[in-house]
Amino acid sequence: MFGQIKMVITVLLIAGIAGAGMYVMKLRSDNAILKANQFKLETAITEQNKVLEQQKKDFTAILESNKKLNVLIGTFKKDLEDLDKRFTKKNRDIGKLAIDRTEAIERIINKGGKNAARCIELASGAEHTPEELKATLKSEINPECPALSNPNYVPYQ
Amino acid sequence: MYHINKIFVLAIIVLLTGCSIGGEKKIKIFSIEKPREKLDYPMPTALQLEELKWIIITSENAQEVFKKLEEAGIDPVLFGLTDKDYQVLARNFAQIRQKLQETNNLLEEYKKYYEPKEKE
Q1: Chain B neighbours among A 66-85 (CB < 8 Å)?
Q2: B69: which of A63, B35, B74, B114 fits an S-S bond (Cβ 3.0–4.6 Å)?
């Protein structure tokens, strides 16, 4: 009888120790998983921050680029208006002017054509000449495309 | 004889299972993010336009103009535009130039955005 009780207690004891051991093992395994998860989360946060930082930089670059293009399109509109004005300012009739002052208008038109051709060269990516970049006066600047001819030129009224 | 058989059987077992000792090596798969190659085209070559000369011809100077052309050895023929059409031509050229400039600018901006220089 006593022997049987002893055996049961021994079995229970062994089972208890084994259970505790397994429980500790499980805890250690859980702990390892949690540590790995924590590390992954921290890495993910760092990466997310990097992505956010890059996105911020990209947005700034896009805004800046949009602004630049809008300014450019604004200058296009103004250039076309200026061109129209040159033909029609003060009810000017270029046809009648050409009849009255043929040689003078021929000279003006040839100069205008030369300037317009230079504008096309610049628009296609030609390098500016030092004279073009130095031009600050209305008489010095290419009137067909002032903004393109010298990006730093400030028109005055 | 009995021992020889035992050794023989043992040798066969070792021979057949020998390769599995230590286990197979695990294959490690990892990915490296490699950026896409840059297209890096040079910007288009700038245009170099040839100069042309406009001649204004009216009913009064027509004969004189043709005479001058003949004297200079140029065929006495002119391709004409009215004053209104000349204005249209000037406007059309201005628009072509603007489109060229816009396209070039867009190209530059795309290049700057997607293929920035290393130091930028």
Answers
A1: 68-69, 72-73, 76, 79-80, 83-84
A2: B74
State the ipTM, two decimals: 0.72
Nearest residue in B to A112, CA atom: B90
pLDDT profile of chain B (120 residues), mean per 10: 79 72 71 83 90 94 95 95 94 94 92 77
The tens digit of pLDDT for each residue in A105-144 reads 999 999 999 999 999 999 999 999 999 999 888 888 998 8
